[in-house]
Structures are given as structure tokens and as C-alpha cells.
Amino acid sequence: MSSHAPISLRVTIPVCGFRKGYAREFLETEEVPPPSTVYGFLLSLVGEEDRRAYLGTQLACAIVQAPQVSTVLRTVWRVKSLKDKAGNPQLPGVGSNRRPDFQEILTGLELVIWVLDGPLADRLRRASSSPADIERFGGLSLGESRDLVNDIWWASDLTGIKCQWVTRDPQGDLPLPVWVDHVGSIGTIWAQFTLVAGMAIAPREGAPQWITIREG
Q1: How many angstroms separate the CA atoms of 128 and 116, rounded?
Q2: Angle at 161 between CA 119 and CA 151, to 5 degrees
Q3: Who contacts 182 (Cβ-Cβ below 8 Å, separation ≥6)?
Q4: Does the CA dihedral 121-126-132-134 come out positive or negative?
Q5: Pairing of β 98-115 and β 68-77
Q6: pLDDT tens-digit map of 68-98
Q7: How confident is the model at residue 23 (pLDDT cuts 50, 70, 90)?
Q8: CA-closest candidate to residue 17, choices 144, 117, 102
Q9: Do 72 and 38 touch, CB atoms closer than 8 A?
Q10: What is the rounded CA–CA span in Å between residue 216 and residue 208?
């Protein structure tokens, strides 16, 4: 039995995007952050660089303010050619290794994250009580490095707040990665989810809102 209640964080992100895994010509976004992205955000928050340090963590996520979806035109890097026409090395983002593409972005996302009692929850509690002791670098983001977090409230009062739960559902219409293989794709773990309306209170242990972070 857990010795502590789950820790909760209420987070706002003014601009962000969670690119769909197989989006190519038009960079569509999911309207909720994938579990793998939420886990990466938590690691960054406490200054942990080892992705595997807290495998087995159980987290839950709920949207309390649905974002607006917009489309922008931006320059996207790709690897089209390793050499230019003269045979010289061609770097990423240079020459044919970049192109304009339309991309969907979200504005005004607000969510609550719960982390079930365990090693990562303990470290988050220490971070909340002694933020000056955190050793980390770079801007804190959820998703791409440009998608900076604006606010974090620790264990804020969520009484009476409605939300949309990111819920495990084998028949759900949201395929989201739980773990991402950054070298290839064979080790990426996908799971099906659906959004379920409810109230923003910590789910009971074993509820389908809890997602276990595991490696592929």
C-alpha cells in the first residue's frame, strides 16, 4: 500500500504541439500530450537526464482547459541529402535539408498530472519543497524545446474542476506513445486511449487513467 497520496501538478503551456506519429506532409497535432512526453517533462523538471531512471512510474493526465488549434507555416528540418551539389557535406537545416511545411499548434493548454507514490513522486516532492536544490539546464518545456511551460502549481485545490481524462481504452481513437525509441521505431510502445469527462480528483489505484511508463 502506498505511504503517500499521489502528487499532483497543474501546468499551463501557452503554445505547444504534439506531432502525430505518422504525420508527414501536413504536421497534425494530437490535442493531448502523449504519456511519453509527460514523462520526459517530469524528468526535465527534476533534472534527471537518464530516461530509464524511473521506468515503472505510473502517471495520470487530465485536460482542464482544452486548447485552440491553429495552423502555421514553418521551416522544417529533414535529412534529404548528406552532400550538396558540389559534393560537400550538407548539414541538417541547410539547402535541401529543410523545407516549408504547414504545422498545427495548440494554444492555451492547461492540464493536471498525477504521479503515483514511488521514486519519481518522492523526487517531485523534494523539488516542490526545495526548488533551489534542483540542478537542471535549459527551458522547461512540454514537447518541443520552444513549447515552454508557463506555470506549475503543486497540489493545487482542484475541487469542483471538470476535466477530460486521458484514459486507457483498447478501442479508443487516440494512439499515443508510452515510450519512444529515438534511434529507430521498433522499440516505440503505442497504446490506445480515449478522452473521458470527469472531475479532477486523483484516480484510485488500478483505474484506467493510470499509465505505466515502460520501455519497448
Answers
A1: 16
A2: 55
A3: none
A4: negative
A5: antiparallel
A6: 999 999 888 777 778 878 888 888 778 878 8
A7: low
A8: 144
A9: no
A10: 20
